[in-house]
Design a protein that fits this description.
With 335 residues, the chain is α/β, with parallel strands linked by helices. It has a single domain, classed as Rossmann fold, CATH 3.40.50. Helices cover 41% and strands 16% of the residues. It contains 11 helices and 13 strands. The chain has a 7-stranded parallel β-sheet with strand order 3-2-1-4-5-6-11, sandwiched between helices. Helix 3 (65-75) runs parallel beside helix 5 (96-116) and helix 5 packs parallel to helix 6 (151-170). It is globular, with a radius of gyration of 19 Å. The protein starts with a strand and ends with a helix. Bound molecules: nicotinamide-adenine-dinucleotide (NAD).
Length: 335
């Protein structure tokens, strides 16, 4: 298959591209290498992909309408895995416009490309943050998610709505994946595990929000990739049982699906830090702080829909996953 993957210099996109190339797919990789976090890390991820056969590395902003039209016209991908986005909850309070450009205008350009070039399946990244003010746990794709608490979450929810419209109007199969706090080797420097590791190794105190009482359904990156690949291969189809009298938010009479991809096992932040301390062989100096605006106290994924449709549930424990991250971090930064 020829697969357009956006965000190939990013954390999850680079892992997904490796998996697709390793099984013999052709990958058209798009990324604008923006400087939201260290560009050298993005370049290092790409430098491991570029030697692989079938990888086509393209520098392009997904918000560039003409550029995206030309990309689809030239490469005519069979399927699309759309992961490029402005990520991060906290940064969306600082720079909301970046989210409108990358996540709304960018997603629009992807949908239009799929519409005009008969793409067989669009799989795109949504986020656990769409659950916002929901408190009924575990979070289910069959629950209503109309109360986002950050603009980041609102753009991700909008991506789901925009995709539904295109599935309905043009019959384009779309699958939205709500990822739950992803971590692992080649991770993101703006995320807690990365920041904690850097600070603990440097002997600096770490900021622990919500006094460490946050619960997160931390999900190891290989488990996310497995979910992405399996859903990519399982083209979204209409739910024949769907009824407008009792509309199920997770499916539709259009070829539209949503899945949570989370470990289904929430871990308290303070426990996550303890495991990291064990792996690093050092204690953290903890600066205990209240909850941050836009944050939610807990996330917990109901993954039944993923199990039912693609026979899969993430299983890597945080003990295993954090150890692998620390091994990678020490090797990459030579510390
Ligand atoms: N990592 C997580 O815990 C998590 C959780 C939920 C959802 N997600 C979503 O998963 C996807 C991938 O996240 P990630 O953690 O790999 O983030 P990342 O920031 O590492 O990767 C995103 C990549 O997209 C690129 N990009 C951003 N804007 C672009 C634009 N306008 N044009 C072209 N390229 C652009 C960036 O340069 C980056 O390389 C994102 O959509 C994110 O919102 C991630």
């Amino acid at each position: 298959m020829k697969v357009l993957v956006t965000g190939t210099a990013g954390f999850i996109g680079s892992h997904v591209a490796h998996r697709l190339l390793d099984r013999g797919d052709e990958v058209i990789g798009v990324d604008n290498l923006n400087d939201y976090y260290e560009v050298s890390l993005k370049e290092s991820r790409l430098s491991r992909l570029t030697p692989k056969q079938g990888f086509n590395d393209i520098r392009l902003d997904i918000a560039d309408r003409a550029g995206m039209e030309a990309l689809f016209a030239k490469h005519k991908p069979d399927r699309v895995v759309h992961l490029a986005a402005q990520a991060g909850v906290r940064y969306s309070l600082e720079n909301p416009h970046a989210y409108v450009e990358a996540n709304l205008v960018g997603h629009m350009n992807i949908l239009e490309g799929c519409r005009h070039h008969q793409v067989e399946h669009l799989v795109y990244a949504s986020s656990s943050s769409v659950y916002g003010a929901n408190e009924s746990m575990p979070f289910s794709v069959h629950d209503n998610v109309d109360h986002p608490l950050s603009l980041y979450a609102a753009t991700k929810k909008s991506n789901e709505l925009m995709s539904h419209t295109y599935s309905s109007l043009y019959g384009i199969p779309t699958t939205g994946l709500r990822f739950f706090t992803v971590y692992g080797p080649w991770g993101r420097p703006d995320m807690a595990l990365f920041i904690f590791t850097r600070k603990i190794l440097a002997g600096e105190p770490i900021d622990v929000f919500n006094y460490g009482k946050h619960k997160r359904d931390f999900t190891y990156v290989d488990d996310i990739v497995e979910g992405v690949i399996r859903t990519l291969d399982h083209v979204a189809s209409p739910n024949d049982q769907w009824s407008g009298m009792q509309p199920d938010p997770g499916t539709s009479k259009a070829p539209y699906r949503l899945y949570n991809i989370g470990s289904n096992n929430p871990v308290e932040l303070s426990r996550y830090i303890e495991i990291l301390e064990d792996c690093l062989g050092r204690k953290a100096e903890r600066n205990l702080l209240p909850m941050q605006p836009g944050d939610v106290p807990a996330t917990y994924a109901d993954v039944q829909a993923l199990i039912d449709d693609v026979g899969y549930k993430p299983e890597t424990t945080v003990e295993v996953g954090i150890a692998r991250f620390v091994d990678w971090y020490r090797d990459y930064y030579k510390v």
